[in-house]
Structures are given as structure tokens and as C-alpha cells.
Amino acid sequence: MNQAQMMAQVKKMQAEMAKAQEDLASTVVAGTAAGGAVTVEMTCDNRVTAVKLSKEAVDPDDTETLEDLLVVAINDAMTKAQETSAKRMSSVTGGLRIPGLM
Questions:
Q1: What's the pTM value of the predicted model, to 2 decimals?
Q2: Do residues 11 and 79 lie in contact, with contact meaning Cβ atoms separated by under 8 Å?
């Protein structure tokens, strides 16, 4: 492979990575806790877009439990976002481990 071909391939990969990052910014995953009593929706670029609470999850006398459920749901959403991002970026890079992307 000559240098011109390699540069063309690098530019193509850069364009595909930019498109994948755009797609991930609009891809929403949901994390849940307590069987769905708490749901957090997050984009794959880690922006929380919604928090949904069932009436059963809200007890004014026990805010600590609700706080814990929110942490669990947010962490669940973050894990799903990271897994989705890694899978998408891996398909672009052909499995190459590129520092800063995965």
C-alpha cells in the first residue's frame, strides 16, 4: 500500500468516526433501577435527557433510597452508553484500539 492510499484510508476512517460520533450523540439508552421504578435516559455521549420516577419510588420520608436508586439507574445508563459507543466505534476502526476512543 502506498502513502496516498494509506492517507485516503485514514481520511475515510476519520469521516466514518465523525459520523459514528454524531450518531452516538443522538442514540438514547435507558438505565433502570428497582424493576423500572426509576429510569434514566442518556445519550451515548453521556448527556442525561430524562429521569422518570414511578409514584412508588417517591417516599418523602425516605429520600436516601430514592437517591440510591437514581445512582443505580444513572450507572446502568452509563454502562449501556459506553458499551454501545465501544461497539459502534469498534465497527468503524475494525477492532483497532485507538487511544482516546475506547
A1: 0.80
A2: no
CA–CA gap between residue 90 and residue 36 (Å, rounded): 30
Q: Rounded CA gap, 87 and 81, in Å?
A: 10
pLDDT digits (tens, 9 = 90+) for 24-47: 999 999 999 999 999 999 999 999
Round to whole Å and give the CA distance between 54 and 56.
Answer: 5
Mutual angle of helices 3-26 and 63-93, in 10-degree steps: 160
Domain 21-91 part of CATH 3.30.1310.10:
yes
Report the C-alpha gap between 74 and 70 in whole angstroms.
Answer: 6
Q: Measuring CA to CA, which residue among 43, 42, 24 is closest to residue 87?
A: 24
Domain ranges of the chain: 21-91
